[in-house]
C-alpha cells in the first residue's frame, strides 16, 4: 500500500494542497485527475518523497517515507516526472541502463534492457541517440527506464510506478499500448501504478480507481463509475459534460453537450 494522510502543503506562501488523503492498494491503477492547477503533480511529488516536511505522513508498504533509505526505496518506487531533460547524447540503451541499480551480469542486463524496450515498442531504437528521438519516443523510453528500475530488483513487497502525464506526447495507438502494458503489470505483479492524467476517457477505460482534485483538495475518490459523474465533472472542470455508457462497459465522457443532445 502507498498512502498519504491529511497532507497540507504551502509553497511560496500559497496553499497548494489542503487536507489531502490518498490510498493506493497493490494490484490496481489509480488515476489522479483534475483541471490545471488542481495540485495533481504536487500530490505525486508528495507521494514520491520530494517534500521532506510531509514525509512522515506518507507510507509505503507500512513504513513512513522518512524512514526509507534511498537505495531501499528505489527497489519499490520509481518515478517518471512530467518532463525529463537530458543534456548528453546517451544512447537509448544507456538511458535504460542508468535506471538499473541492482547488480546483474552483463548478459542478464542486456536481456532485461531489451525486454523493457520491447514492452513499449522502442526496441528498434536501442542504439539511437536519445536526443534525436521524437517527444513520443522519448516518453516511451522513459517509461521503459522506470519499469526497468523496478523489474531489475528482487522485491519482497508491492512496487509502485508514479507517472506524471506519461502519455501526453503519444499518438492514439501508443497511448492504449502503454496503458495496456501498465494494466497487465499491476494485475500480474500485484504492484501499483499511480498516474496523473488529463484524459478522462483513458482513465475510464484503464484505471481501477480515480482521485478527482480541484484547487488543492480532493473532490471525490472511488471507482471509475462513482467519480465520473456528469454534474461532478461539470462543476470541477467548469465546463458542461455528459457521461454515457461505452458499449464495452466503462463511462464515456463527452464534453460540451447537454443531456438532451445525447442519444440514450
UniProtKB/TrEMBL annotation:
<dbReference type="InterPro" id="IPR027417">
    <property type="entry name" value="P-loop_NTPase"/>
</dbReference>
<keyword id="KW-1278">Translocase</keyword>
<protein>
    <submittedName>
        <fullName>ABC-type hemin transport system, ATPase component</fullName>
    </submittedName>
</protein>
<keyword id="KW-0813">Transport</keyword>
<dbReference type="GO" id="GO:0005524">
    <property type="term" value="F:ATP binding"/>
</dbReference>
<dbReference type="InterPro" id="IPR003593">
    <property type="entry name" value="AAA+_ATPase"/>
</dbReference>
<keyword id="KW-0067">ATP-binding</keyword>
<dbReference type="GO" id="GO:0016887">
    <property type="term" value="F:ATP hydrolysis activity"/>
</dbReference>
<dbReference type="InterPro" id="IPR017871">
    <property type="entry name" value="ABC_transporter-like_CS"/>
</dbReference>
<keyword id="KW-0547">Nucleotide-binding</keyword>
<feature type="domain" description="ABC transporter">
    <location>
        <begin position="2"/>
        <end position="240"/>
    </location>
</feature>
<comment type="function">
    <text>Part of the ABC transporter complex HmuTUV involved in hemin import. Responsible for energy coupling to the transport system.</text>
</comment>
<dbReference type="InterPro" id="IPR003439">
    <property type="entry name" value="ABC_transporter-like_ATP-bd"/>
</dbReference>
<dbReference type="Pfam" id="PF00005">
    <property type="entry name" value="ABC_tran"/>
</dbReference>
